[in-house]
Amino acid sequence: MTITLQRLQEKFPDVPGDLDLSAFDLDNIPTHVAIIMDGNGRWAKDRGLPRGSGHVAGIEGVRAAIKACNDLGIGYLTIYSFSTENWNRPKDEVDLLMDLFARTMAKELPGLEEEHARVKLIGRIDALPEETRRVFEESIERTKDNKGLTLVMAVNYGSRDEIANAMTRILEEYRLNPDTFDLASGIDEKTIADHLFTAGIPDPDLLIRTSGEMRLSNFLLWQCAYSEFYVADVRWPDFDRYDLLRAIMAYQRRERRFGRV
Q1: pLDDT confidence of 244, banded at 50, 70, 90?
Q2: 177 in active site
Q3: What whole-number distance in Å separates Cα of residue 168 and Cα of residue 163?
Q4: Phi and psi dihedrals of 152, rounded to 5?
Q5: 28-158+204-252: CATH architecture
Q6: 139-174 tens-digit pLDDT
């Protein structure tokens, strides 16, 4: 989809004073944006609410990000929904999140279909509760032919686990068919990339993290080797479509050299 300044202005009315849409580079829109959605619990704590309230409030941020990315013609949006380490949180919070995933995905599926979005999941999906897994699988099946934004949800995902899993699969394929790889020459980057959960998905151009934290938290370590990072000081439930525009416009001011001069 080609976006014009007029369309941009129509999709993003009431622009805050610090944003000048005429400075938006229509020819430099990232293909893939990844987001570490941080700060739900602190958002709730700041308001004297239980942590679960922050996760519920964060749904609106996801909805806004999907709509904004689709409006901008961004091809891929990856959101870090639940890490392999998040199982260590209190059981009642984990149970709430798993239930929230199932209920929210079922509720949002018609809207995703209306946006022509396609759902993909990365992570150890087989370890999720049955109902949560069923709803995700149904969403993947119902949206698989859509041609709009690809929404990649990282659920029960950890990047180190992903890389270890890729190496295990490569070695297993080699054991079954030694002609598959020339291990004497080493394993090249393409072979590893082709065995990651993200195989077939372009690496993120822009990685956004909210709540002011500056760490990757075991998220897309391989894929973000040359991603541009943007840290927003707002908690995730307060991150809106204009914050996304700020991140993209900051990205557009960067010079991406990929190790070259």
Answers
A1: very high
A2: no
A3: 9
A4: -100, 115
A5: 3-Layer(aba) Sandwich (3.40)
A6: 999 999 999 999 999 999 999 999 999 999 998 988
